[in-house]
Amino acid sequence: MPPTVECCISSSDAALRSLADCDRVELREERCLEHCGICRAERFAVVNGTLLTHPELSAAVDALAEGAAGEGI
Amino acid sequence: MNVLFVSIDSLRRDFLGAYSDRPEVVDYHVETDNLDRFAERATVFDTHYAGSLPCMPARREWLAGTHDFLWRPWGPMEPFDDPIPELARDEGIVSQLVTDHFHYFQHGSNGYYEDFNGFEFVRGNEYDAWRTSPREPPAAFTDQLLDRETDPPDSTQYLNRSAYARNAAEFETEADFFAPKVFSRASEWLRENQAWDQWFCFVDSFDVHEPFHVPEPYASMYTDEDPADPDMPVWPYYGPIDEGQSELTDQQLEFVRSQFAGSVTMIDRWFGRVLDTLDEEGLWDDTMVVVGSDHGFALGDHGWVGKNDFTVYDVIANTPLMIWHPETSVERVSALTSAVDLYETILDGLGIDPPSGTHSRSLMPLVRGQTSEHRDHALYGLWGSSVNVTDGRYTYHRPPELHSETLCHSTSMQNTHSWFTPPTARTEVDSGSYLPYTDASVWRYPADSWLQHRDERLYDRQSGPGQSTNLAGGDEDATQYMVDVLRRALDELDAPDSQYDRLGL
Fold it and tell me: CA dist B282 to B232, B287, B368, Å?
């Protein structure tokens, strides 16, 4: 099962959106994931159910884009 | 004529005996004796649809008669609106709001309660910014409400679920909970205000809306689980039930359903007190009573929990509506009706001439049996995503084009996607008289469209109950017919040109 990446339309960016073209990732860009307090402060995404912010998020996105398929995330 | 309008938020109609022997998602009957008692007296609407979603857009439809979602998202009353309580004041009709709906007091939601002569706000539900102590709310209860990683109890961030853990931490008896308080206050208001010549009372219950936190006996009424088990959630995150932050085990999903059902039964019992008051005070002969909901709530239906993030299926949009009027002569109405129609219906009941140019049409001719037809189509949806339309048989769901924008039209600078955080000061805006229903100038600014689904969807409510088979494309005639219905519906409302562009029409 591919890793699931959930992000808000307000907090996603080009790197996150580029995962939409990656077959190994299930990217879900939602209007709002109900984490507005975090979203207001910094970029975030929920990867396999775990909320990540910088620097863990950037590392996870890079790993997913390079085909690490979410192991260890 | 007086008008009592009762909204029960997120009330799925299949949980009501008046609509279904048992809900779609459980194998047990849910007790709703008092709502059923009211249904026996009232006209029951079978094809009633939400319009603008979710909570506050629905309230602008009800209270101002504006089909909101083609032009703007969740937002305030606009200066050019004519809210029912304002019109009632001008006619010497006293008005009252009784609610535990914190949305009235959050960013971007101003203008809804201010025109009532009185409003009673029962504190504490959902994210209500009420109690700040204890700093560490009870651990087991907190674990049923939130993920500590995303809603740390020691954080001051917006939309932190820990607020509810504090607000409800000291609840001991059933009477401490929200629906009991709201409906008790409503009953008291009815008893205490009959000296007025005429009144309008809006009882806006936030329950059944999550969190589905209920006391005994309701918490154990429909489940054998321990209702205080920290692993059993009472506030599920929105999303698919099989992945991501919203993932639920079968056991957890059944528990969530049981707590929703328990909440419905608790509401029903306290709603019954309002009916008792109408009986005891002899109010039925000069009171119109409207009971409905803004939208449903998916409890695993179509693989989802929540209401905003997926195709606007009937479990969300086909809402309950029941109207009692002394001139009621029809038991059931099959005609297609829309949430925005409640505006003129309530004004009709109050004897107030409706303003011209709204999107509302009174339902009273249906209630009186003067007609059996009402609308050819009804539009519904959330601003920025799919536009949905039904003719009563088919539902058609048209997503926006990938990477398209949606224009927001408002006198305020709204936070278009994150509704509950402070508004965004915008620099790149147009201004002008863009709205077909007012000459007033508004700001106009773009935001990204978002996708509830990527593909065009068409469902036949008659041949395929449950909306499980997508006919779009496969049934070309029906698809083209509903595309034409959508165009006609947009044309009739003089929808923005940008809507046609973003929908690829």
Answer: 44, 10, 22
Q: Indicate if the alpha-carbon torsion angle B173, B177, B179, B181 is positive or negative.
A: positive
Mean pLDDT of B482-494: 98
State the burial class of residue A14 (Cβ atoms within 10 Å of its Cβ: 0-12, 13-18, 19+): exposed
- ∠ at Cα B15 (B14, B16), nearest 5°? 90
Q: How far apart are CA B434 and CA B248, in angstroms?
A: 45
Would you state the CATH architecture of domain B2-367? 3-Layer(aba) Sandwich (3.40)
Answer yes or no: are the C-beta atoms of A47 and A73 closer than 8 Å.
yes
| DSSP character at residue B237 | P
Query: How far B380 CA sits from the closest chain A CA (Å)?
Result: 17
pLDDT band at A11 (very low <50, low <70, confident <90, very high): confident
* B239 chain-A contacts, CB cut-off 8 A: 6, 28, 30, 33
CA distance B484 to A10: 33
Smallest Cβ–Cβ distance between A46 and the set B158, B245, B385 belongs to: B245
Q: How far is CA B243 from CA A3, A67, B282, in A?
A: 9, 20, 53
Would you call B160 an interface residue with chain A, using a CB distance cutoff of 8 Å?
Answer: yes
Taking the C-alpha atoms of residue B124 and residue A33, their distance in angstroms, rounded to an integer, is 22
Across the range B147-164, mean pLDDT stands at 91
CA angle B251, B255, B259 (to 5 degrees): 175
Q: State yes or no: pLDDT of A26 exceeds 60.
A: yes
| Domain ranges across chain B | 2-367, 378-503
What is the largest distance, in Å, between two alpha-carbon atoms of chain B? 62
B159/A9 CB distance under 8 A: no
